[in-house]
Amino acid sequence: xxxxxxxxxxxxxxxxxxxxxxxxxxxxxxxxxxxxxxxxxxxxxxxxxxxxxxxxxxxxxxxxxxxxxxxxxxxxxxxxxxxxxxxxxxxxxxxxxxxxxxxxxxxxxxxxxxxxxxxxxxxxxxxxxxxxxxxxxxxxxxxxxxxxxxxxxxxxxxxxxxxxxxxxxxxxxxxxxxxxxxxxxxxxx
Length: 189
Known about the structure:
Layout: H1 2-25, H2 41-59, H3 65-68, H4 75-99, H5 127-142, H6 146-174, H7 176-184
Helix pairs in contact: 1-2, 1-4, 1-5, 2-6, 4-5, 5-6, 6-7
């Protein structure tokens, strides 16, 4: 069961990579993280460490044993995790399609794209971050140890911080259009 969640994690990362490569071929640079806020790079480090922690659990990579002790091993939680991660992947796929050529990792201060308010953005103002939080919650249900819990909490805090930064930028960039959007659609759900 744990391998399925690990495969889903690999699929999530492949989806991001594929979208980035497709946009790059069209002359669009998607990686804007760390510009102008270098602290935003911490989110990528947290995700990379989380991925390694999960991979270590599934593949037997080196990992400190005291941090890898699981809180539980309950079959229904493993099945629930697979469902949660699968739904998150579908949601993320729809979000990537909705994004079109506007997909960026970080804040693109030079954007001239329209504000996206359709698709998953009609349900959540932050469907990508929502995907990551829900997906990694599903991962935690399967790999329930101190490290994955710590990474999940750090991911949630850093994602929320990045959301607040992006909201400030979007309000300044799109003005009333973004403010009206905020009155109709919640930050998360």
